[in-house]
Structures are given as structure tokens and as C-alpha cells.
Amino acid sequence: MVTVLELFSGALRMETAAGARARAVIYARGLLDQTLTVSEVRAASDRGRFDNGYRWERTIRDAPEFTDQGDKDLGVQSEITLFEIEVSVLWRQSADREGVYTIRTLRLAPRPAA
């Protein structure tokens, strides 16, 4: 009987953890989608909180390592650039453990005027 209760308790903990991670994935995807709809992209970093204990961090950075490789050899500067967008959602799993879900993508944009 004790073994059955332990198995049931373990299954409930796994279901709770999976639900928390699923919410983090939904939050991260929503924040990433929101970031991708902005018309003018620029390097930035910000953070915030959702109402139910989840926190988020967003970083947008220039990613010249993806576009400027061949340009240096040819002496040509491209009119476009890539930005790397990284969104992380964090939540408390236990008193000494924090869960993190991170999603990254690249976005093509016009090179900012110098």
C-alpha cells in the first residue's frame, strides 16, 4: 500500500512540474512573438514579471558573426544585419531550485544608420 501511495505521489509531482514547464513555454513563446512584431529592432535588454510568480528576461543583440563574415574579405558592408533575440522564463521549482526555459531566434533587419 505504501509503495502505491509513493508512486501516486511521484506521478503528481511529475505532472505539476510538467504543467509549470508548459506554462513557461507558452509565456516564452508569447514574449518572443511580441518581440518579433516590433517594426524597429535595436539591441536592448529588459526583464519583468508575470502575475503568477514567473519572471522573464529578454535580450536583443547584434549578431554580426552571422552576416559580416564574407563582407570583411570583400570590403563590402551589407545594408542588413541579424539580431539574436533570446527570451528566458524563470520560475521557482522548490526552495533551492529554479526552473528556466530559454528560446532563441534570429531576426533580419535593416542596418541602423551609423
Any chance you could write out the topology, listing elements then pairs?
Blueprint: H1 2-36, E1 44-49, E2 55-62, H2 69-74, E3 80-94, E4 97-110
Antiparallel strand pairs: 1-2, 2-3, 3-4
Compute the CA-based radius of gyration: 20 Å
Strand order of the largest sheet: 1-2-3-4
- Give the fraction of residues assigned to helices: 25-40%
Q: Indicate the structural class.
A: alpha+beta
Main pleated-sheet profile: 4 strands, antiparallel
| Approximate strand percentage | 35-45%
Unreliable parts: none
What does the oligomeric state look like here? single chain
Mean pLDDT, to the nearest integer, reads 82
Number of strands: 4
N-to-C series of helices and strands? HEEHEE
Number of helices: 2
Span from first to last CA?
Answer: 72 Å
What does this 3D model show about the protein?
- This protein is of the alpha+beta class.
- The protein has one domain.
- Helices cover 36% and strands 38% of the residues.
- The protein has 2 helices and 4 strands; from the N terminus they run H-E-E-H-E-E.
- It has a 4-stranded antiparallel β-sheet with strand order 1-2-3-4.
- Strand 3 and strand 4 form a beta hairpin.
- The longest helix has 35 residues, at 2-36.
- The radius of gyration is 20 Å and the shape is elongated.
- The N and C termini lie far apart (72 Å).
